[in-house]
Structures are given as structure tokens and as C-alpha cells.
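[step 3/7] fold_predict: job queued, chain A
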Amino acid sequence: MRIRTRPGWSSTPNSCGRWRRPSTRKRGFSKGAKGAGDGGVPAAGDEAARAERRRVRRRHRARLRTAALGRSRGGLSAKIHLSADRRCRPLSFVVTPGQAADNPRFVAVVEGIRVRGPVGRPRTRPGAVAADKAYSSRATRLYLRRRRIKAVIPEKVDQAANRKKKGSRGGRPIGHDATLYKDRNTVERCIHKIKAWRGLATRYDKTPDSYLAGLHLRGAILWLRSLRPTT
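[step 4/7] structure written:
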């Protein structure tokens, strides 16, 4: 039996019994693209508009990097990485965009510690560093071991499982001082004291340098208050 079809249509129906029209789309271009020229080739105006949008996006990203701002869950924000002693006094600050991770800034925070004593050079190597599981990486522990600093960092569950899976090749279990780890809340309390200044809790400064200057000013006030005699 001869089947008659419409011009340009397929001679075999699909599974639903309908005739199939061949696709007129060209590879690499969507059907009915706005601003496209004949034959699916983008017009010169579209290319110029795309180049302008790319230039604006690059300039916007450069401005965000200069201002140390980034996209986080709360929108455009900045993040403060800091260290504190047992008396909730800040020791060092590092300002990064809001989406920056914590562990890559660990070395910069520790190397920024400068505690001046009565005589001699400032002390730059603490006896121990307490941090949460976000800093539980091999590179962090190796850095602390190389500087002869005791690491008080709990091990993640997946890291412990991978170490046990390797057997003897996984190395020894990581030691953790639970007594010293109880003092880790001092850095959280220090952050709450810093947030007492509204300009630091919500960043109003346009440049990261002025924002960092406010952090140092607030830290200096906390240090001066702690050095005041209580009587």
C-alpha cells in the first residue's frame, strides 16, 4: 500500500500514529533566536551586545575583588578570619570575600599573630592552636607540626574512616586534647564582642583597608580594657 504524505514530512508515523515533521533547526543555534541573521548566523549587533555584557561582568567582578566582597547565603558580604587568646582578646585579623573558605586562610591568620612582651621581640608562635573540624586537614596539621605548635583540632568522621580503611598505611590516630578544646569558645566570644560595634557587624566601609582598620581599633580597645586594673 502506498502512503501519501505532505511535502517535507516523514513517510513513517511515530509511536503515537502522528506524522513527523523534520527539524529545521541548525546545529549550534536555537529556533527563533532573537537578533539572529539569515541562516542562523548571529548579527553583528548581538556580538557587540554580548561583548559589552562580558566587559561589564568582568569589571563588576574586579570591583568585588578589590572591595573584598563576595556572594554568600546572605548576599554580598565579607568574612573575618581571626585568632584570639584565652581572655577573648583578638590576636590577628584577615578579611576575605564572604564565599571564601576558612581552612585556606589558616596560615595567614596564624602568621599574623604578634604578641609583644615586656622585653624582647614579639611572640609569634603560640603553644597550642584550638580550631574546629573545618581546619582538620593534613596540610594544616603539617604546618603546625613544622612550627612545633600543638594542634587541638578534632578529626572529621570521613577522615577517620579513610585512615582506618588504609590500615597501617593510614598512619597513627590523631591525638586530641579535649581539655584544651573546651577553651575554643573564646574565639566565638571574641567575635560577639567585636559585633558590639554596628559598623563591624554590618560592614559600612567601602574599602577593606578601612574595615580592617576598624577591626584593629576594636581589638585595641578590648586589649586596653583587659589590661586595666579591676580594683
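[step 5/7] annotate
The chain is about 35% helix and 10% strand.
The two ends are 111 Å apart (CA to CA).
exit 0
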